[in-house]
Design goal:
Helix content: 55-70%
Order of helices and strands: HHH
Radius of gyration: 19 Å
Shape: extended
Number of strands: 0
Structural class: mainly alpha
């Protein structure tokens, strides 16, 4: 029996030509999404920051308390919680937070590089 997830028949799918209006819509929606993520990240920075002069964000203190592995487990646990809640309640805020936590995890696990390229699909 073939795995339906791995077998794709492109002949049975309609392919729609991309028009300029659709591209502009995607770009404007992405800009809105990035704005929401930035607002949420800045809000978290000020809400969870400690007292000066150690005004580090909570997200940066977690590895000090839980270790690097604990940090990854914390973020993955929070992601699971938000994914389940999004599935049940369809709250936009949870979806944006899933993206933001994923971004934080990406920043932590893959430090600065000279050039980033998407991984090739196999």
């Amino acid at each position: 029996m073939e795995d339906p997830v791995r077998v794709v028949n492109l002949e049975d799918h309609l392919i729609k030509l991309v028009n300029e209006e659709e591209n502009q819509w995607k770009l404007s929606r992405f800009e809105e999404f990035a704005r929401l993520m930035k607002m949420l990240a800045i809000d978290g920075s000020s809400k969870y920051a400690g007292a000066k002069p150690y005004s580090r964000e909570f997200i940066d203190i977690i590895p000090d308390i839980l270790s690097e592995e604990g940090y990854i487990n914390f973020v993955l646990g929070d992601l699971i919680k938000r994914i389940i809640r999004f599935k049940n309640q369809k709250r936009e805020r949870d979806l944006v937070k899933i993206a933001l936590w994923t971004y934080f995890l990406w920043m932590r696990l893959f430090p600065k590089q000279e050039k980033r390229e998407p991984e090739t699909h196999v």
